[in-house]
Amino acid sequence: MKKSASRIITIIFLCLMPVWMLASKDVKFSEKENRYMATFPKISVETLKNGSFMSDFETYLTDQFPVRNACIALKTNTLRLFGQRKINDVYIASNGYLIADEEEFNEQKVEELTKSINNFAANVDEKVDVNFMLVPNAVSIYEAKLPYNVKSTQRDTMDFVKDNLTDKVKFVDVYDDLKDNVSQQLYYKTDHHWTTRGAFIAFTDYAKAVGLNTDSVHYDFMAVAGDFQGTQASNCGIYSSYDNVSICVPENSEGSYIVNYIEKTEKKATLFDESKLSEKDKYLVFMGGNYSEVDITTNAGTGKNLLVIKDSYANCMIPMLTPYYDHIIVVDPRYYYDNIYELVQGSGINEVLFLYNVNSYVTDNSLEDILNNIPSNDAE
Amino acid sequence: MVFSSLNFLFIFLPITLLLYYICKDITWKNVILLIASLVFYAWGEPVYIILMVISIFFNYLIGKDIEQSSHPKATLVFGIIINILILGYFKYSGMIVDTINSIAGLSIHKRELALPVGISFYTFQAMSYIIDVYRKDSKAQQKILPFAVYITMFPQLIAGPIVRYEDIERQLTVRRFSGNDFSNGVLTFIKGLAQKVILANCIGAVHTEILGMTDRGAVVAWIGAIAYTLQIFNDFAGYSNMAIGLGKMLGFTFPKNFDRPYASTSVTEFWRRWHISLSTWFKEYLYIPLGGNRKGKFRQIINLLIVWSLTGLWHGAAWNFVAWGLYYGILLILEKFVLNKLRAKLPKAVNWLTTFIIVIIGWVFFFSSSFSGAVNYLGTMFGANGFATSDTLFYLFGYIIIMALGMVPAVVSFDDNGKKPAAIKWIACILLFILSVAFLVSESYNPFLYFRF
């Protein structure tokens, strides 16, 4: 009697999970992981012979495991319990901050890239001012929040870039002012971007450096979302903090510009895309994300045209710049395939701003190609 | 297929166990086991399964011939040569060609061969069979089915333990099944699974990260080396535990493969406790036939060096594995002939620590991709690149608990006594199982992020 009871228990245990796996419905898309989950792989002689069916089948099982999200939370929390403070390259820092680790600095690569900016400055018209704002990431500014006294080397990276720039390029150093304002929230807790507040401090530095008169312009900060959980939360699987997203608009510029999305051939009267606030990645509210080229026409009447060559850190700062330029052209080199020199010449650009964060600058693979594509003058 | 996969845990194993226990007759149980093993092998190695089938038929016929033939020695030598040639072709041809090329300055073209999974293990098992038959320690197996089960048995097919034919001959046709054995098997399997999925994989990640760093101080280098020391133990011993546990669930008793190796207080002791089935194999089938210690000290030293360089080579087809083997060979010789008297006078703690450090240094040769890489890494460990870097505390505090946990099964025995396991053990193991599955599922956690900064 007892023997058969234990047999039945064993059989139940053996069948429990398989039956549950079979019975549960396949998930097509995972919100948390922001990707399509594996589906049942194709069986054919070919996939069996090369073993791809077998490995795809295991991926299918793990992707469609019934309590997958709970498993991930269990693992993350177990590791935290053991004292581990870095999961998937995200530091679990104090005050609920999830801070992306810094990207590895490769001296030769950064030197080449910086040279190409020098090259650009030397090859555009002499009267064009070239400025370079290299923004440190949270890992550097919020170094004190990092676990176990971890140190960042981004200040050294910034100095290296600064030292490698020629006099033709002005380096806008925002490090000190960000560092002085660490009591404010300069970076999102759960995302790898800086906040609008952080961008505003950097904007003030930029205004000083290029001589913009900001006295007459009043800036309004408006909270637009309170439940943002960004890339860092997804990356390490910790969803305990939420971020507020706010936008910053110059008060006297309401409705006074036209934004032309070149690749979408679409014109709008706003630099904000409210529809993104209902999506997962709420940072996309700024300019709707990254586009190869965005042309902004304003009624500033200053006679100055600005070209911004940038990564996504610029997206929340661009609106702050609108009162000072008639035209602002925003180029994201990762998606840009035209000739940047022709753009500078053809659009009557007077100022150029390179705006990058350190992590994306040291890993960038597209800027150098665009800057080194200098048109030959033989045609003239 | 590997044990630490959802497919194995939740599909393959339940089906196999159900079918296995539905069959009452041992022959049918063997049929189920053989089919399951072939599926298990083909799942990971769909093409090379042919090689294994050839090996089964070949060694089966050799075994029979040794028993019947009038010149059994010739048959044995032929059998061993063919086994070694097959192993050599798949495992060592690349290394041999590279070595010839670099010595003679040639550039012979080398065919890149994928190493068939488990070939080192099943070839050694096959050789153990034909040698046992030759020595009359075992009778030649007359039926192909039990012999095929011996070679292919999925619990130990791809990572051991290397079960000697002599030890398992009877169990191939006569097995006792008991509820307690099954229960203890389940628990042993879960212990092994947790060792592999929780300890080895997490500690391995620490090692990988440290190895990828461009500059590290002495402390971090030590953490990296110790992490590997614990990873390889938990990986290997975990796999052995899973194999032993599965064996028990199927009615087999496999020999113990690891017995608290990092508690050893001498190198000699370490090798009695580490990968026991391999050391036993080399001792039984190489060291003793070479004459062992019966032909004078000089011959004994030579024999030890031969055995240990081959032990190193068995672990991998590269010269740093040979160096690693010789390192142990030389240390064992030193211990035997010089150090034993000195060691006897020292406190146990000192002997333990020196042994553990020797083992850690040994693993540096093992994980380094080249000999010079190993020397560089050792240099860093002993202060060539400074003592501490800014991230020293991070590695020290962030991973100390998981590494301490990883040390526990290396120094404490969790063996069962064959009796009915206590309820507390069940609870602990069920929790470990849930945690292991969570870790296993999480390994594929791979959020796709718009990392367009």
How is the topology of this model organized?
The complex is a heterodimer of chains A (380) and B (453).
Chain A: H1 2-23, E1 29-30, E2 35-36, H2 45-49, H3 52-63, H4 68-81, E3 86-87, E4 90-92, E5 98-100, H5 107-123, E6 129-135, H6 138-141, H7 154-164, E7 169-172, H8 175-180, H9 196-210, E8 219-228, H10 231-236, E9 243-250, E10 257-261, E11 266-268, E12 293-298, E13 305-310, H11 318-321, E14 327-331, H12 340-346, E15 351-357, H13 358-362, H14 367-371
Parallel strand pairs in A: 6-7, 6-15, 13-14, 13-15
Antiparallel strand pairs in A: 1-2, 3-4, 4-5, 8-9, 10-11, 10-12, 12-14
Chain B: H1 6-22, H2 26-44, H3 49-68, H4 72-104, H5 119-134, H6 144-152, H7 154-157, H8 165-168, H9 179-211, H10 218-249, H11 267-273, H12 276-287, H13 296-315, H14 319-345, H15 348-367, H16 371-381, H17 392-411, H18 423-442
Helix pairs in contact in B: 1-2, 2-6, 3-4, 3-5, 3-6, 4-5, 9-10, 9-17, 9-18, 10-15, 10-16, 10-17, 12-13, 13-14, 14-15, 15-16
